[in-house]
Amino acid sequence: MMTVLIAGAGPTGLTLAIELARRDIAVRVIDKADEFFQGSRGDGLQPRTLEVFEDLGVLDQVLAQGIPLPVMKITIGGHPVGERRMADPVDPTPDRPYPNAWMLGQSRTEAILRNRLADFGVSVVLSTALVGFTQYDDRVVAELSTGETVEADYLVGADGGKSAVRKQLGIAFEGTTDDSIRMLLGDVSADGLDHDYGYWFAGPDNPMEGIALTPLSGGDQFQFGAPLASNDADTTLEGLQFLVDRYAGEGVTKLRDLTWSTVWRPNIRLAERFRVGRVFIAGDAAHVHPPTGGQGLNTGVQDAYNLGWKLADGREEVLKTYETERRTNAMRVLGISEDLMQKHIDGDESAMDRGEEVQQLDISYRSPDATAALTTGDRAPDSPLTDADGNQTRLFTLFQGPHETLLRFNPSTTSTHPHAVTINHTPQPGAYTSPEAFTYYHAGDGDEFLIRPDGYVG
């Protein structure tokens, strides 16, 4: 049986572990932390991540525990000046069932993923760091801080921006860290503010410099964000209250119950490689993003979603596409995040606007010279289906699981593929009808599309 060791139990490591465990691959997840992270940190889940979570069987919990993007109340110099959203809500369409971002604190997302992983009999092992490893032609031997030695077919470093796996591999982590820009982030309750809204408080001289309070689901806390003008950072409750009083005015709100805080600096880096032999890196170990655009956690989840089925396949021609596909995508996403960060620095009023470029629904691994409307490497759209008895279902429901799917549009031949789905113009036993699917796939009679396990056209 194949075995995989994953270092790091954040969203990336947990997603990968679920992907492997549901394919009956022996997986072990270790983390050097003594306890699970508690805090909101990466709290924005993009539409493509929601589609991934549906496939993993956790979307219902994510939707139940989270909230939509809030309306932000804008106050400048103590005077309310209006309301705005980062993005206006968009109605779902049959091919894009989850078109809007969803807000859920990172620690709650991780808890949902851990519970799903436990369904497969796998638990995270805390207080266990990766000390070192040695690669051989057929295995990786890892030394753990507990003194244990572990043999695995593959090792994956999902161990964050300071990744021990990446460092031992000697992979360059190219990019910049800007120490001139610093922000104080935290999770805190705020008496006197309506928790159904977010807030932006700024002074009259510079409306783009201020503090943001964004509601967090599951209680009365907000995620607090404020710029720091000096090298001294007071991350205590008193420090946050000082900043609130400075930008919102004294008496507007009283903060309490600070449960997490950190000082953030713009750190934009991309690993030179995502793989060396039998060792891979993913998530923040491979790329780190500014929080602008909410791309970091989402990109890591999709690294794992891309890598999981490829590890299970095990063929070199499949494994080698992980770095090609995901590093190219990470480079693109870093560009989006960096552009949004620069807008914040420049005081651009559009810095808070979010469009389709951050939703990750347009991620594609297609060849640069491909011209077809839908081709190899593109996201496979969802679509409603009706069987011969009139029962309704969706393509995403048929895609769900660790398998690939062969879509056959009005075929004239039979297929032995174990997960073939036939879509005809008229009802027939063992087949579906869906005018929408013909449209979304730009399909003609006899066309076939092989859908990869990660929901992209193969």
TrEMBL record:
Residues 2-334 form the FAD-binding domain. Its cofactor is FAD. Keywords: FAD, Flavoprotein, Monooxygenase, Oxidoreductase. It comes from the Bacteria. GO terms for molecular function: monooxygenase activity. InterPro entries: FAD-bd, FAD/NAD-bd_sf, RIFMO-like. It holds the Pfam family FAD_binding_3. PANTHER family: BINDING MONOOXYGENASE, PUTATIVE (JCVI)-RELATED (PTHR43004:SF19), TRK SYSTEM POTASSIUM UPTAKE PROTEIN (PTHR43004). This is FAD-dependent monooxygenase. It comes from Kribbella koreensis.
